[in-house]
Design goal:
The structure holds two protein chains of two kinds.
Chain A (H helix, E strand, L loop, with lengths): L8 E3 L4 E5 L4 E6 L1 H7 L2 E5 L6 E2 L4 E7 L3 E5 L4 E6 L9 H4 L8 E5 L11 H11 L2
Antiparallel strand pairs in A: 1-2, 2-3, 3-9, 4-6, 5-8, 6-7, 8-9
Chain B lengths: L7 H6 L3 E5 L2 E6 L3 H10 L2 E4 L4 E6 L3 H8 L13 E7 L5 E11 L2 E6 L4 H12 L5 E4 L3 E7 L3 H6 L4 H9 L5 E5 L5 E5 L8 E7 H13 L3 E2 L2 H10 L35 H10 L3 E8 L10 E4 L2 E11 L4 E9 L6 E5 L2 E8 L4 E2 L2 E2 L6
Parallel strand pairs in B: 3-13
Antiparallel strand pairs in B: 1-2, 3-9, 4-7, 4-8, 5-6, 6-7, 9-12, 10-11, 11-12, 14-17, 14-19, 15-16, 15-18, 16-17, 18-19, 20-21
Helix pairs in contact in B: 2-8
Classes of the chains: A alpha+beta, B alpha+beta.
Chain lengths: 132, 368
């Protein structure tokens, strides 16, 4: 794999990343590996600010030319921000999955859930296994 | 077992992402499907279509056989080299496959059929050919490269030997000729395609395919994968077998009525069933849809029309239009205000004439 996985991220097996922002909030996106699998993204359906979300529940949809894919929230809580820029530029996710391509921010109701997520190394191992 | 075309290693070396397609290991894209799509609409791109099945039919009664086998009339082929698009039907009028027939001479016609339907096609054609004494031979020794786009023909012609360039340049649409590359490689050059752009489909000996592909690259033709091929053909309003029609649907229900020739006295397979369905009233129709809202139309989504429920057959995001487009099958009659159920939301769509895009341009009414 060409792209580096930032060390401050945690992952779900279903390829979402979570970044703890330090104020009880978590930014969520999809991994660079996931955007590569999906190919050119053309549409993103985001939750609404104020929505209550459960860890492991589908809260957003990313669609490439090829397929639609659910995005699961890594943690439970309340949506406090969504990346509205993606409406006009969904390809941002292809270009910068771990940065400008973030999807939404959750204010956590149960911070212990973070401990259940994969470390960058575990995630790297998971996707290396998928490629065999 | 997964089959590979002779260009498999070439695709990998070009960075292709490979996927299984009907049992073949094929490139879906070489980086960006959308870029490849635009490349074909704006300049020239090439596709490895060697997985498609070339079948040669030989014998004195081959035309008579094709009158029986095909729903379109092979008698429309009057000049050697001319090609005809047709469905091959079962007795129920269902589509076994769609194919192109090339008229080489009175004792030799060539068919190009789909890869995914190869086995059943060969079995069916073989069985039907027997009473006519027609010899059926699959040309697994041929590779095929489709070069498509406004500049595609010029790029291919530049690779031909001097003596063949003029005749290749004069080749009419939907016709083929046999020519030679500059190095003497024999090429079957057909002015056909599956993108809605001008261009050639070139069949050539497998052993020469890699060199010819590389010569095209050298000439500025960029590789394009099956992903772009699918969005291009859907924009062009061309059906995909297995998705837009199959053995359970007739050409009338699949937007393919224009390929059925009910010419006087020709008893083709499936004709009785087609005429019976026409007399009774065709229950379903294919329509083209465009969605102005954001989102993507996809195969299997439920369609709500005035006459009842239908479904999306082929749906995608159209890179040329920047909107979702689809072919849908709905009950016969005026469709009215059509909606598509996308994850529980009923999204309004517009019914438009097919094709959506031809030769780089959105067709009238498609962008509203």
């Amino acid at each position: 794999m060409s792209s580096e996985i930032p060390g401050d991220l945690k992952f779900l097996k279903s390829h979402e990343w979570a970044r703890l922002e330090g104020n009880g909030r978590v930014t969520v996106g999809i991994s660079d590996h996931a955007q590569g699998l999906l190919g050119d993204l053309v549409y993103v359906e985001l939750p609404n600010v104020g929505d209550t979300v459960e860890a492991g529940a589908a809260v957003a949809v990313v669609e490439s030319v090829k397929a639609a894919s659910d995005v699961y929230s890594p943690v439970s809580g309340t949506i406090v921000e969504v990346n509205t820029d993606l409406a006009d530029k969904p390809e941002t996710i292809n270009e910068d999955a771990y940065g400008e391509g973030w999807l939404f921010v959750v204010e956590m109701s149960d911070p212990d859930q973070l401990a259940e997520l994969l470390s960058p190394d575990d995630y790297a191992e998971l996707i290396a296994g998928e490629e065999d | 077992m997964t089959r590979k075309t002779v260009l498999n290693e070439t695709h990998r070396a070009l960075g292709a992402k490979m996927v299984d397609f009907g049992g073949w290991d094929m490139p879906i894209h070489y980086g960006s499907q959308i870029d490849e799509h635009h490349q074909v609409r704006r300049d020239a791109g090439m596709f490895d279509v060697s997985h498609m099945t070339v079948v040669d039919l030989r014998g004195p009664r081959v035309r008579e056989f094709l009158r029986r086998l095909l729903a379109n009339s092979v008698d429309r082929l009057k000049v050697p080299g001319k090609a005809l698009y047709s469905c091959m039907l079962n007795e129920q009028g269902g589509v076994i496959d769609d194919l192109i027939t090339y008229y080489m001479d009175e004792a030799f016609f060539r068919l190009v059929v789909n890869a995914a339907t190869r086995d059943k096609d060969l079995a069916w054609i073989g069985a039907q050919a027997q009473p006519f004494g027609v010899e059926v031979s699959e040309r697994a020794d041929l590779a095929m490269i489709a070069v498509q786009g406004p500049n595609a023909r010029e790029r291919v012609i530049g690779l031909l030997r001097e003596a063949d360039r003029e005749v290749a340049g004069r080749l009419g649409r939907f016709a083929a000729i046999e020519v030679q590359a500059a190095d003497g490689t024999p090429l079957f050059l057909a002015r056909t395609g599956y993108t809605g752009e001008d261009g050639f489909e070139v069949a050539l000996p497998e052993g020469a395919a890699v060199a010819f592909w590389n010569a095209l690259l050298e000439a500025g033709v960029k590789p394009a994968g099956l992903g772009a091929r699918d969005t291009l053909r859907l924009e062009a309003g061309m059906n995909l077998y297995g998705q837009d029609m199959d053995e359970t649907t007739t050409p009338w229900e699949s937007g393919l009525g224009w390929t059925v020739a009910l010419d006087e006295g020709r008893d083709f397979i499936g004709r009785a069933a087609l005429e019976a369905q026409q007399a009774a009233g065709v229950p379903r129709q294919m329509i083209g849809l465009v969605m102005d809202e954001k989102g993507v139309l996809r195969h299997g989504q439920k369609v709500l029309a005035a006459g009842g429920e239908g479904e999306i057959l082929s749906g995608t995001f159209s890179p040329t239009l920047g909107k979702a487009i689809a072919l849908a099958r709905v009950p016969a009659g005026e469709p009215g205000q059509v909606k598509v159920d996308i994850r529980g939301r009923q999204m309004p769509v517009r019914v438009v004439k097919i094709p959506f895009v031809r030769e780089g341009k959105a067709q009238p009414g498609v962008l509203a």
